[in-house]
Design a protein that fits this description.
Layout lengths: L4 H13 L2 H4 L30 H18 L10 H31 L4 H21 L2 H7 L2 H8 L8 H8 L8 H14 L1 H13 L4 E3 L5 E3 L2 H7 L5 H16 L2 H21 L5 H6 L6 H13 L1 H14 L5 E2 L17 H11 L5 H12 L3 E2 L11 E3 L8 E3 L6 H23 L9 H22 L3 H37 L6 H16 L6 E2 L21 H18 L3 H12 L6 H7 L8 H23 L1
Parallel strand pairs: 3-7, 4-6
Antiparallel strand pairs: 1-2, 5-6
Bound molecules: zinc ion.
The site of zinc ion has 6 residues, from helix 19 and helix 20.
């Protein structure tokens, strides 16, 4: 999934929650675009690689339904013998693999044209089959955990379980936090209430919040909802920007007690699971789901805080380039460089991407050429096609697919490079790993995609001689540092702080949330250093961010970005060992824990090293933009 900065974070949230948040943003395109049949075939993905005909899909669907019944025979037998356990896991994963292929086909058929009845129907049926598969395998994990530790240790020595070592370890490591059967049933029941804070937040923010009417400087009257807010806050007119901020934040402020109640509910929910599962703190409890040590989180906060002077340098540069005497919080979004027309047709983008990613070596080059030549990519928008962009690597035995909505722009080229990063990751992992280790964690997923974006940027800036275009490329990079590194770190720190405050018994009132948020804004944006002025009204921004309901998710935007910059810088400089390590990380898929995966990729996120490499890249860019600005 990909889109720029803020929108990107929403899209990623949707991956996590699998629902509401992002999908609300994914409308269906309909007006002014071609019908699907009018798009040249070579720009449409070839779904026949998954199933040559719908009959073939139907036959496989039936077969999976039938074979599902065999799973029932495994129940109660997992702890009996290594051979039996190995066989049952084989069966479970082979069914899951086949189900993925069925659902990928149905999903993509539906995504390419949502108006086509056939896609809707298949997608619906695949969804129901998925629910059945989940229900039929729900007992596996609890049954594994119920096998006495000694017995399990003996079983695991057998060769039949060799391929499942890490898989079993990943379940059994949580043994200390699993409760008795009856208690687990109560915890599961409580899950029904767990989504309430976010659901209510979403309804309040999208439906019930009385968005103010706003008159643009062009005299256009608009309802200032989230979409209009994100559009108008980039206005080149300072007074208009200020009015946008005042009006939008005032609307949020009028519901501040409701928002405080909801966020407090979300924090209580997290704390409930921390306590019943016996974790020491909410952060530890959340990160244990993917076995990420809390040191990764706290190290990130420490490193980014130490790097704040670079943010301040960027903001001073922004003040200068916008021709302002003093930067205020509503001056953060307008572009610092005049927009540059850079129409890039897809065929040209393909050539540029292949050249830019040549640094990744011949194997990746061959994969990319195959992706372009063998119709893995659905390139252009068409009537009824899902908006946005994504990569699906779920067709394990087939090849990855990419959905784009390509328009001839720099941004679209960058998106294509991003999704191709995911595709190469999936291709290599699918090829090197058994199915059950082919899926990789979020912690590394966005490293592969942003590494590609960074390689593309490095390649383009190295040969761009036109000063305006250079400034555009460098300016984009600086802004992604602010939004993906510093802003996300601020959010991550706020999230940690409010969980700690609540755990210490402090009620999360609107006043306390405002004060906590404002303090962080001041610290991150350098108010004491005279960098930015912040109107206390904007302290309510915490109410605008849906991610505070996702239970410690946002830090990964920062860690992924830092890791990918560090990796791309080394690879671009021709460091062959860095490239080989990175490819080894991609090939490893999900066969190791997140931190070990990144270590394989040459970045140890528990240390300062990757941050130092990344900050050096930021510093270099700042120095160049400062020079270009001085010449202006
Ligand atoms: Zn992505």
């Amino acid at each position: 999934m990909r889109s720029r900065s803020w929108v990107r974070t929403v899209a990623l949230g949707a991956v996590l929650l699998g629902a509401a948040a992002g999908q609300a943003q994914e409308g269906k395109m309909s007006q002014g675009v071609k019908a699907r049949e009018q798009i040249e075939e070579r720009y449409r993905w070839r779904l026949e690689d998954l199933y040559p005909t719908q009959e073939a899909w139907e036959a496989d669907f039936k077969a999976v339904e039938t074979d599902l019944q065999a799973l029932g025979k495994c129940q109660g037998r997992l702890g009996k013998s290594a051979k039996g356990l190995g066989g049952c896991l084989d069966l479970q994963f082979s069914l899951t693999k086949r189900f993925y292929r069925l659902s990928t086909y149905a999903q993509q058929l539906n995504d390419q044209d949502g108006a086509a009845v056939q896609g809707q129907e298949l997608n619906d049926r695949a969804g129901k089959l998925g629910t059945r598969l989940a229900a039929e395998t729900a007992w596996v994990e609890p049954e594994l955990l119920a096998v006495p530790a000694r017995k399990m240790a003996a079983l695991r020595k057998a060769r039949a379980l060799g391929p499942y070592g890490h898989f079993l370890d990943n379940i059994l490591r949580r043994r200390a936090h699993v409760l008795g059967k009856d208690e687990e049933r109560v915890v599961a029941r409580a899950g029904d209430m767990a989504n309430l804070p976010y659901t209510a937040y979403n309804v309040l923010s999208t439906l019930n919040l009385p968005f103010p009417e706003f008159t643009t400087r062009a005299g256009e009257k608009v309802r200032l909802n989230q979409a209009q807010y994100t559009r108008l806050r980039t206005s080149p007119d300072r007074d208009e920007r200020r009015r946008v901020f005042q009006a939008f934040f005032a609307a949020l402020r009028s519901f501040r007690e409701s928002y405080a109640g909801l966020i407090s509910g979300a924090v209580s929910r997290d704390h409930f699971y921390t306590q019943v599962r016996g974790y020491r703190g909410d952060l530890e409890s959340a990160l244990d789901a993917t076995n990420v040590p809390t040191a990764i989180y706290t190290n990130m906060l420490e490193q980014v805080r130490a790097g704040r002077p670079l943010l301040w340098r960027y903001l001073r540069l922004r003040t200068q380039l916008l021709g302002l005497d003093k930067l205020t919080y509503s001056d953060l979004y307008p572009s610092i460089v005049p927009s540059v027309e850079m129409p890039i047709p897809f065929d040209q983008a393909r050539g540029t991407i292949l050249e830019a990613l040549a640094a990744l070596g011949p194997e990746v080059k061959a994969i990319l050429e195959e992706a372009f030549a063998s119709r893995w990519i659905d390139v252009y928008p068409n009537a009824g096609k899902r908006s946005g962009a994504y990569m699906s690597g779920s067709g394990y035995d087939v090849h990855p697919y990419i959905l784009l909505n390509y328009v001839d722009s720099f941004d679209a080229m960058s998106t294509a490079a991003h999704e191709l990063g995911h595709a190469v990751h999936s291709y290599l992992a699918n090829k090197a790993q058994p199915f059950h280790y082919s899926g990789y964690p979020t912690f590394t997923a966005e490293v592969a995609s942003t590494a590609n974006e960074n390689l593309l940027r490095l390649f383009l800036t190295a040969r761009e001689t036109d000063p305006k275009r250079r400034l555009f490329l460098l300016g984009e990079y600086l802004e992604s540092w602010r939004t993906t590194v510093f802003r996300q770190a601020l959010f991550a720190e706020f999230e940690l702080k409010i969980h700690e405050l609540a755990a210490a018994g402090k009620p999360l009132t609107a006043d306390l949330l405002d004060a906590t948020y404002l303090e962080l804004l001041k610290e991150y944006y350098g108010v004491a250093e005279g960098v930015v002025e912040i109107d206390p009204l904007y302290a309510i921004e915490w109410a605008y961010i849906p991610h505070f309901y996702y239970n410690f998710y946002m830090f990964q935007y920062t860690t992924s970005f830092i890791a990918s910059v560090a990796i791309a810088e080394r690879i671009f400089s021709g460091d062959a060992a860095a490239r080989d390590g990175y490819l080894a990380m991609l090939r490893a898929g999900g066969s190791l824990y997140p931190v070990e995966l990144l270590k394989l990729g040459g970045v140890d996120m528990t240390t300062a090293a990757p941050y130092q490499v990344a900050f050096k890249s930021l510093e270099k860019t700042l120095a160049e933009v400062e020079q270009l600005a001085a010449k202006k």
